Amino acid sequence: MCDMRWINxxxxxxxxxxxxxxxxxxxxxxxxxxxGALAHLKDTEVKDWADSxxxxxxxxxxxxxxxxxxxxxxxKHGLVAVTGECPTVGVAGxxxxxxxxxxxxxxxxxxxxxxADGKFVxxxxxxxxxxxxxxxxxxxxxxxxxVVVSVTLKAHPEAMTSGAGFTLDDPSLDYxxxxxxxxxxxxxxxxxxxxxxxxxxxxxxxxxALTGYNRTQADMEKILAPFVKSxxxxxxxxxxxxxxxxxxxxxxYSYFGPLLVGVFGSASETSWVAxxxxxxxxxxxxxxxxxxxxxxxxxxxxxxxxxxxxxxxDTLIMSFYTLPYSFDVPFTKMKTEQDYITNTIMQIxxxxxxxxxxxxxxxxxxxxxxxxxxxxxxxGGYWSLRSxxxxxxxxxxxxxxxxxxxxxxxxxxxxxx
Length: 417
Fold this sequence. Notes:
The protein has 417 residues and is α+β, with helices and mostly antiparallel strands. It has 12 helices and 16 strands. The protein has helices spanning 4-11, 67-75, 91-97, 131-137, 175-191, 217-232, 248-255, 269-281, 310-313, 331-352, 366-378, 382-389, and strands at 44-50, 55-62, 79-80, 108-114, 120-123, 147-154, 156-157, 161-168, 195-201, 204-213, 241-245, 263-265, 290-295, 315-322, 406-408, 414-416. The longest helix is centred in the C-terminal third of the chain and has 22 residues, at 331-352. It is globular. It comes from Penicillium cf. griseofulvum.
């Protein structure tokens, strides 16, 4: 898919320089930001695959391929693959290697990687020498173990896909009760194979997208009916909008936008509702605190050969807390509002659900970063793997496992801590 001699050359450098591996930079911590960085490796190949784990269609993509390019390559074959909700997200980088909410990591079959010592290797769950490297690349964080050149992913058949959504913004309604009813309905909705994206704030609940892969509009109406009935008792005459598309690709480009995050376990839904309603009732929520949720059930896809954050296997809802951003006010004002979310809102959340986790690409809280380090060290012995794979200290990013050995100086230089 590319000239390996060219790839090996910079990695073999002996100038004591750290490498930052760049992808599409959809990362809150700026892990993939490097001055003068290049984006390339755009090849795609659709082919058949057969091993003890999976037999079927796959797509092999270069490390620079973005979600929309994966879709374009697969559409002509009547196939789809798991990509980011934002079509410009790079698939092989932090999205898959960071776990991709486990959904993409669970679809990995093989990585082609250049290690810190300049070796080009293929890592799969069945490789004798590199099964541990495959495990780590499938979810434990990008930029830690080597330069991924390509990844091979499972491809799935195109299918009819239906959607649904609604907006409630009547200030006279009892929104804590409505949100409570919504979360009470979610387990059954998710068990039916549906994914939901929604947001709630004082006086508003918007269910932006219910995704029903291989579902008809009639299926969606039946699945949502119990919730419609439950809010009727709250004097809500809910009439969701339903859509049906011939393919998942048509649905995807009609519905999806940026992905949002913060992980909550399914066992904690009552506590989550309490926190959400408290935030909406508080005087601060008048300033615009918005709780955004993504709900899905991926417990059935668990794999011991992939390094997905364990909390995600038991998760019902991911949530994300926001205040509106403005370029028309001083940056210090925006920093104050960010600090409010980090130091006030997140403190409430963590007291209620102390074992929650987060998608590493969306981290903003230093204590969550510490928790991610602890989790990564515990699961599967990543620390010893990283020490073996990057013994030259070649790879660095601000929150990679091992980055605590380095400190960025005020002048931008990177020095040993």
